[in-house]
Design a protein that fits this description.
Layout lengths: L1 H5 L3 H13 L3 H5 L6 E2 L4 E5 L6 E5 L2 H9 L12 H10 L3 H13 L30 H13 L4 H8 L5 H6 L4 H8 L13
Antiparallel strand pairs: 1-2, 2-3
Helix pairs in contact: 2-4, 2-7, 7-8
Length: about 200
């Protein structure tokens, strides 16, 4: 994580921190505006683009501290990550952002650099098979869940925090209170200490 953060500019550093501490997908994080944050309740509220599920995540103390350092305007519809927001809105998906994160990973020496141009004669889009990297922005989602579970957080709380739709019946019968969720996110380790957003 420290290597990734050291190769990220301020906006990408912020996206990585949000990914690490919330376990949310890159497209959902790119779409965040200030109205998704309730700083009085110390919560992030969003609707998953993939599942349509409303997700409420208590903000881990290190993420809250980071958010308090972000430049904020008077418009609650202002994006938290303006370049990512614009790029995702322009393309209608997070593919270009995933490519940028791949470039960060390559610069950090964590994956092999690759071209983002479609090979001539090959199709584009989801129907075309693409090379899958073992590490991507989505890895932060896996990391979040793994760290929560390794810290003793129950499967139900971890599933609720990240917004997984699997185990549907379990979700319908499981009610997670705010106290349990807040205790869960506060078990995540502090990363990127000492750097401030510009």
């Amino acid at each position: 994580m420290k290597t990734i953060l050291s190769h990220s500019d301020d906006e990408w550093r912020s996206l990585v921190l949000f990914g690490f501490y919330t376990g949310q997908r890159l497209g959902d994080l790119a779409a965040l505006t200030w109205q998704n944050l309730d700083l009085n309740q110390k919560e992030l509220r969003l609707v998953s683009r993939k599942t349509g599920r409303q997700i409420v995540i208590p903000l881990a103390a290190p993420l809250l501290q980071h958010i308090e350092q972000l430049p904020a305007g008077d418009d609650p519809k202002q994006p938290l990550h303006p370049r990512a927001f614009e790029l995702a809105a322009r393309h209608g998906r997070a593919g270009a952002l995933s490519n940028q994160f791949g470039d960060i990973l390559a610069a950090a020496g964590m994956i092999e650099a690759r071209s983002h141009q479609a090979e001539e004669g090959k199709g584009k889009g989801r129907a075309t098979r693409r090379a899958v990297s073992e590490i991507s922005f989505h890895s932060l989602r896996h990391t979040n869940v793994s760290l929560l579970k390794n810290a003793g957080v129950s499967d139900a709380v971890a599933q609720d925090l990240v917004g997984h739709e699997s185990a549907e019946v379990s979700r319908l019968y499981t009610h997670i209170d705010d106290k349990a969720k807040r205790a869960a996110v506060n078990k995540l380790p502090v990363i990127g200490e000492g750097r401030k957003a510009a």
